[in-house]
Known about the structure:
single chain; three-stranded antiparallel sheet; 7 helices
Amino acid sequence: xxxxxxxxxxxxxxxxxxxxxxxxxxxxxxxxxxxxxxxxxxxxxxxxxxxxxxxxxxxxxxxxxxxxxxxxxxxxxxxxxxxxxxxxxxxxxxxxxxxxxxxxxxxxxxxxxxxxxxxxxxxxxxxxxxxxxxxxxxxxxxxxxxxxxxxxxxxxxxxxxxxxxxxxxxxxxxxxxxxxxxxxxxxxxxxxxxxxxxxxxxxxxxxxxxxxxxxxxxxxxxxxxxxxxxxxxxxxxxxxxxxxxxxxxxxxxxxxxxxxxxxxxxxxxxx
Length: 271
């Protein structure tokens, strides 16, 4: 057996906490010397203590933990609780990471305020009709990788693949979580459509203002600000009823599979 001070060192739980658990009948010493009052614990009680600490991590009160310890909750049920908590915390972390990315993007825009020149070259192009398969949905731009995965799974069943990614931004009427987004992959020949995935031709665009930059698929595009400045300063206007396009190509030297060299494309016409 171990003295309370020794058990405290082994478990890395303070003597004060162990005494408090004793008072609550949460973790009683195996033996208490009736003459000295010294508390003694066995190594097996480490399992009980670990279970208590596990329940605390899950957010249960000490009274709730005492009841659960008395009910002898099966270990598999405890594991299930931890898996749920892990998923919940991971979701929070993902949301906060996305928020941090948006803050970085907005900071980048603020730092560029007042600049008279754009940092990228804008090129005017004529775009020919293009055969694509697409998936269109009103959702958050953060779900773009997920939409491409669903589209690629469908192509994979047909034995097809494509390295180019096309994102069509149709508009946003109500909120940033309900953006009218369409993801697409170029095709070399006709294939069957499905209820979710549409095979169609993107129309010919006589004049497309384009700008190439580096971006992440799941991040909002700050290069659009530069393109907007160029359009306004050079006597053009955005052509109505044509979505903004973004063509993404993987770039090996960037070292991040979610980072792409992208070309933003906006259909324009002379004012």
